[in-house]
Amino acid sequence: KQWYQRRVRDDEGLFNHALTTYDLELVLQVAQCTQKDPKEYLLFLNEMETLDEHYRRFRIDTQLGRYKLALQSLVKCGGRFEEVCQYVTQHSLHSTALSLTS
Per the confidence metrics, is the pTM higher than 0.90? Predict the structure, then answer.
């Protein structure tokens, strides 16, 4: 049982590491080589393919807990002022937001 739990954690870490490349084809290949259930990742990857590049990076970085990077991508999207304000407040990124505007 311990081996399986460690394998699942390793698979999740490998999947998350692939996500940091923002290369959805690579992420799909990695996911297919792991024990992850396709229902867990196919819906997510299909949704990511429909998004523009900066918003996709925002969503991926948010999922990975990389909130400062996510905010940078969200700001680059443009036209999402309310969402930026909400995100800054939600993740206490006020100083990061100020540095992005200067």
Answer: no
